[in-house]
Amino acid sequence: MTGCQQQATSNRHPATGIQQPASRIQQPESSIQTGFTLLEVLIAMAIMAIVLISVYRLHSQTLSMAAATRFYTQAPLLAQSKMAQLETISPNAATGDSGDFGEKYPGYGWSVLTEDVSFDALGDAAPDLKRIDLTVTLNENDYAYTIRSYRMMSE
User: Fold this and answer.
1) In degrees, to the nearest 5, what angle opens at C-alpha 80 toward C-alphas 79 and 81?
2) Least confidently predicted of 1-5, 44-48, 81-85
């Protein structure tokens, strides 16, 4: 090969064999920098931020729903036990009373309101009809469960 032919073959791209201009600076492919641009990094960080915020919000909602489910499972049982206790005492003692469920159920409280109900169809028994509203709360009204019952209670 002559010197001219050697120069022509050295300007060919190794993979494609296409002649490249002589003015182009030849660099081995291993020395080409293959990093990310600032724009690509910023876009990736924005996508990650959106995804992480969504995951954290979902986790927060899951925790609050679990707390609500726990309350609405426990509150009817506590209300039922308190109603059973109210039936054992006199009707006047339960009017406007409130309290808590002790150390076994921290944060849970209850309040009861008893009112007379007038109902003409009952005749002479009408004065004995009472409406009992029992409310079970958690952490001072974060959650509230109310049950209403009507009882015939003679004084």
Assistant:
1) 90
2) 1-5
| CA 45 to centroid of chain Cα atoms | 25
Closest CA to 50 of 39, 42, 61, 40: 42
- C-alpha–C-alpha distance, residues 20 and 6, integer Å: 14
Residue pLDDT, tens place only, 112-133: 988 887 776 666 656 777 888 9
Place of tokens 């050295």: 10
Sign of the torsion angle spanned by Cα atoms 113, 116, 122, 125: positive
Catalogue all structural domains in the chain, each as residue range(s) with its CATH number. Answer: 38-152 (3.30.1300)
More confident residue, 8 or 154: 154
pTM confidence score: 0.60
Q: Which amino acid is at 32?
A: I
